Amino acid sequence: PDDADVLFTKITSTTSGDVYALPLEGGKERKLISTAAYEGGAQISPDGKWMVYVSNELGGGSEIFLQPYPALDHRQKVSSAGGIHPAWNPVRNRNGGEIFYRSGDKMMSVRVTVTPAGATLTPPVELFSGRYAFGNGNTMANFSVTGDGERFILVKQSAASLNVVLNWFETLKRVK
Question: What is the pTM of this model?
Fold first, then answer.
């Protein structure tokens, strides 16, 4: 929210993917999260105090995690049965916020309440489900949330069809 950094996932020969920050005004990239597992899709909360991201560090698939930002000193698991494509509700909230993510065909929501002791998370709640396209990756959200935090924009997954017409020029002559 302060436009100071851009977060990105860097894949190296020693890790599957790590989360880095790069100052927009120039400077050196800095490593935020690095394990032997894959971490990516990091998003900063609207108030700039929390970071949500995807990791497969626990094994058994990808999960969503929350950490204070920029301290990154305490990690909490957000998802309960797998999760990808984390995104924050863009509406700023003094006492916390809301994290959206996908779990299979389900769009999930977890509310975050911030206290002096840290963050309290509600259990994940299914908002809706449907066959929506996943895009090319499991970390960066391929959906958008409207500015008021009330609606989602997704690409509906549908079976594509291809019609092949043979001798189309002959068919065109008959239409005249």
Answer: 0.83
